[in-house]
Predict the structure.
Amino acid sequence: MSTTLTVTLLAVLTTAGLVGAVATDGTASLVLAVATVVVAGVLAVRLRSAPPGAAWAGALATGIVIVSAGVPATIVLTESGRSGSSAFASSEEQPIDPSEELRSVLAKAEEIQPGSTRTIRQISISQNWTQMRFLDLTRGEEVSFQYSRVGSTHEWNTPSRSSTPSRAADAFSAADIAGLDLRAATTKVDGAIATLGVKRTASSSDDIEIGRRSGDQRLVATFDRSPIEIEVDPSGALPDNLALAKTGGMLPIAERLLRANGFDPAARVIDRLEYRVFAENVSSVGSGKGTVELSIAGAGRTGKLAETVGKFPEIDLRPSSSSSETSFPLSAVRYEGIEKARTDLVQRFSVLPIDAFALGLRVSADTRTSSRVTPPTVMEVGLGPNSSAEAYYALDGRFLRTD
């Protein structure tokens, strides 16, 4: 082999071997490094028998090739490898385990302040962070801290304190949620969302919030899965009310709600009934989306009963000696009458098929047009997002008026 060829091979093969060793990982990198050393050694030995100065020429040529070609190639390959790994990690990011996050945040709270898990105000878990707020009752303060998964730094932050009027009645303990399996509950919630036909994709804004509701202090875990929120109780059970999403399920759930609170569906205790189906294009008539709301005035109590798809009932009742002359029994409202009114509304206003079942309903006394001492009970029915598709009907579904 000529001296020139030997020098050339030494420079090229050494450079290629070094670049390959740097650009690869693990066993492949080690093999390339060893092979490069062996080849370079063999070629260097051959140069010893070459004319004087050949060894220096080989070393110089190898250095030039490494600096001019090897170093730039190594930089390019290394940077592209890093960006590729980063993109891969981002696209393959695994969802968090909410049950593990719950255990972790409870343990951290005890580390911050022993006994703190007996006065928890709220726990929030999402893909980006895990947060907790607990009460320090000896100082009248609320302590907040979180673990952040945003950016490159994943760590617990320094807890912060602020004064609060909240006390023990506003809090809950780790023992209260000892039977809550968030992983299993997530599966149930996802199944309920699929049953409702909600089309959505997972988002980093999805979260789970454990705490007492502001109205009735009921302890629930609320799964925020926009455009819907679904609650589970401390045992992980979901409300049995998905049927409330459609008109046909409203009356049975309203009856169950009355009976659960000691009211006879045949008694005149309802001053107003409002309902809207669970749909994005639902009419503005009625209560919240997927909600039945009963205003109570009778049987020695007054207030409100409400139930929403995916949530537990909300009860707000107070003793009262007064009664309402306009109250009506739930049994007077029939699905057949609602359906007859809906069908008439579709024809009367040429409602599009997509809006034909997006119903909003309000049932109450017709005090606006009736001069009778006890005015009749009527239904105000609306379909779709267009507010013009509304009319008033008798309880049997007979058309009365549009205004």
Notes: The CA atoms of residues 305 and 315 lie 5 Å apart. The helical segments are 3-23, 26-48, 54-91, 98-112, 182-196, 250-260, 335-349. Confidence is low (pLDDT under 50) at residues 78-92.
